[in-house]
Amino acid sequence: MSGARLGRRAVLQAAAAVSIGTTQLGTAQASDGSNNACTRQDNGTPTQTINPPADSPPNGGEDSTLTSLEVEIPPLNQSLAVTAVDSKTTGPTALIVGGIHGDEVAGYRAATQLLDWSPTAGQLAILPKANPGAIARGSRSTEYGNLNRHFPTKRTPSSPVARAVWNVIERVDPDILLTLHESRGIYKEDSSGVGQTVFHSPTEVAHDAARMGVRRANRTIGSQRLKLKTGHISHPSIAPTGLLAEKTAYDVEIPSFIIETYEGVNLNARISWQKAIVRGVLDYFDLTD
């Protein structure tokens, strides 16, 4: 792979700028002259206070069954806790992952609240805290570095935590992946920001599902500045950089999503938006009504 490696924000900003139209997954090629913009530099807009509307969780009914899965992280004294709810009705399996970065609080808080959800079809699996060491520290990374750079396509994940997360992927065997993140800037407004955007794998199905998720959340957002938008997680002209959603998109070939909310808004609103986006995507794939 030639060319400079991009940070998640640079990759997502570049990918989102590419017009929608690519419907086939393939091996991405690096573009020349790329700059690493993976920084948390937004010092602008102060936190805004927004009161989100109450939402009601989907309820698949009394026939649903719950399964718990613990995946060890050798050589660390840690494990990943996964909860899966089976509706007992034929349908796809969705896996939701929060907490890849320990300082992106709304992601793992929203994922934790989704544990109360029960799909009306298929299965819903949730890994709320994918990076327990980083969450415990409240930090983006650990001594192993940035977890969301450890999922190279066509190769084994490059750190113990990443390999454990991939073990979850292999055991759950999802048809859909959603990862929950946050950004200190807003996409197209701040050079290092990708907030208020749902990035998706470059297929028409993933694009349409992302749009449904965005529409669901945007119903509750009055500010035009904070309206959510969609973009590609990567593109054949942009090299994958080790994101979990890239690996599932290219190696497993499933619809994969990165949900990015803006940290400049109060936590309750961010959590509500993340859940609304997830609900819209799940609705698209008929897991929820």
From TrEMBL:
Top-level taxon: Archaea
UniProt feature, compositional bias: Polar residues: 26-51
Cofactor: Zn(2+)
Keyword list, A-Z: Hydrolase, Metal-binding, Zinc
Region feature Disordered, mapped onto this chain: 26-66
Molecular function via GO: hydrolase activity; metal ion binding
Domain Succinylglutamate desuccinylase/Aspartoacylase catalytic: 91-157
Name used for this protein in its record: Succinylglutamate desuccinylase/aspartoacylase family protein
Organism of origin: Halocatena marina
